[in-house]
Amino acid sequence: MHIATSKIALKKNGQGKRLRIAQVAPLYESVPPKQYGGTERVVSVLTEELVRLGHDVTLFASGDSMTSARLVPVCPESLRTSSQCIDQLAHHMVMIEQVMQAKKNFDLIHFHIDYLHFPLSRREQVVSLSTLHGRLDLPDLVPIYQVFRDMPVVSISDAQRTPLPWINWQGTVHHGLPERRYSFYPKGNGYLAFLGRTSPEKGLDRAIEIAMRAHMPLKIAAKVDKVDAEYFNSVIKPLLDNPLVEFLGEIGYPEKNEFLGNAAAVLFPIDWPEPFGLVMIEAMACGTPVIAFNRGSVPEVMNDGVSGFVVSDVEGAVRAVQNLSSISRRAVRRHFEEHFTGARMAEDYLGIYHRLVAREPEDLAVSNGVLSWMKLESPSNTT
User: Fold this and answer.
1) What is the pTM of this model?
2) Which of 182, 179, 176, 142 is closest to 156 using CA atoms?
3) Selecting from 3.40.5.10, 3.40.50.410, 3.40.50.2000, 3.50.50.60, what CATH number does the domain 182-339 have?
4) Which segments of the chain have a pLDDT < 70?
5) 290 - beta bridge partners?
6) Into which CATH architecture does domain 3-178+342-374 fall?
7) CA–CA dist 194, 215 (Å, integer)
8) Residues 333 and 183 sit within 8 Å (Cβ to Cβ)
């Protein structure tokens, strides 16, 4: 982007200072991912939006990533698909060292690799921010965040904070996606869709049960990780013999857009405290309603009766399938446009960036895309 264009973009969007920002992505998938990969997709959207707004952005990621920012290729290709990679952590340690060696080039370093960088970021005294993309209800995490409770972090939903309310939260920023990347589909083609991993917490077995009880075809676009292979073979694979069920495997773009857009609804019958659930807003971007179980972030992302239905169990989901005609697909798309665009996500992060660079102590809360300021509470000594 030319400097003149950058200045216009910064002025138009209310940001008076051009920031030098490092985005540090996980190396498991490319940025953006070729197929499955939620965190890397979010990092890609954020990076491209920041560049569009005129900021100087450097992306640390795998070498098969594609970006308009400055790319630092830490490893030749994404680690999950690499036949040469055995120790994935080793590559991430190399990346952290590369980031620290270049620290003087950045006003702020935005990490998306959880707590791996905490010791060095503290010792190097860099201005950093960490978006926590995963679940936080694991007992093993408590000592880590007790020791590093000063590290500035962002949640991707308010619900995600529940296990660790006392750490140094700088705000909640819901994920966003590019509006133009997803086409609006005014009408579905009479099948239900499941998109995600085949792990037990994602509820694929319940999705199959919902479809069978509703007497509707179910198309499944899902990846089978090595860790989930035994569960898939013993629990899921026998269920795929039903003539209503079609297993497509892992898909990317543009197949994903068509897959979601042509569905009558997307099933999201999770059985865990989902930190966000990117598939919900991907479906909404296509105008496709979502039928989701009331766990984790679901009540924040969904507008029950507008973007789909929030239900408690399989029976509720079956009733929701029968009531899909009451949902306006244009209203579903509108809910996405009002709350979950990439532009909104980037502006929310920029508010936090500028405050951290200026060393301001307030906590930035983001709720439904609306920013509010409040004093940062002192963390409790209890867990």
Assistant:
1) 0.88
2) 176
3) 3.40.50.2000
4) 1-16, 360-383
5) 266, 308
6) 3-Layer(aba) Sandwich (3.40)
7) 15
8) no
